[in-house]
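Hi Q.,

Before the meeting this afternoon, I wanted you to have the magnesium ion prediction in hand. No need to reply - just skim if you have a minute. The sequence and ligand are here:
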Amino acid sequence: MYKYKKKEIIINDLKKYVGNEVLFECEQFRIKYRDRMGIVGNSGIGKTTFLNMLAGLDKKFDGIIENNFNRTFFVPQFDEFPNWLGVNYIIRRAKHLSKISDIQGNFIIDQLGLNSLFQQKYGTLSGGQRKVVLVGVALLSLPDLLILDEAFNGIDDNKRRELFTFLNKWIENNKITLIFVSHNKNDLALLTNKVIKIKNKRITF
Ligand SMILES: Nc1ncnc2c1ncn2[C@@H]1O[C@H](COP(=O)(O)OP(=O)(O)O)[C@@H](O)[C@H]1O
Ligand SMILES: [Mg+2]
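Predicted structure with the ligand bound:
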């Protein structure tokens, strides 16, 4: 019999080690369908490590992480593409690899203002522009779980407001579950409605 799995992440008795030291632990936790989960915590506390684990990229831990989403997309904290790659190529490829319609794909490209970056190489973009390109690639791939690691730094306030307004609507309309690591209270307030903390080697709510 086909067993329907709810789209959620279930965590049980989780313990992550770096060497012999516990980095953090978490007894029980669920990230539910359409949650907008913020994650906060000091630098070096393990946020990026936790995201890698949630995304299934880091499998070295004790306990259970069951990720029942179909399409998890992880936007990393640091760059992903080589400097010489054209933005045009990056975006067109992402669109091509996805089942997204032309109308939807072009809408994302338009809303994120990616057209104006098409002629540039990835390496010539500012930090903020790079992040927008990465978010574009993520949305074009039609994820049901979107994981964003840090920093929309380097995007000016107007652009940022536009970007977040669009992201909010897109996430809502496409029923995306969001996990967002940030140090910026404003950004967290705009995009998330729940927050967990990593503190004293524990994930707390
Ligand atoms: N592969 C690794 N090998 C050794 N140490 C690591 C590795 N990955 C992460 N760490 C350590 O784990 C800690 C948490 O790192 P990270 O998850 O990047 O923190 P955050 O994102 O909260 O700033 C850091 O002290 C880092 O040095
Ligand atoms: Mg980090």
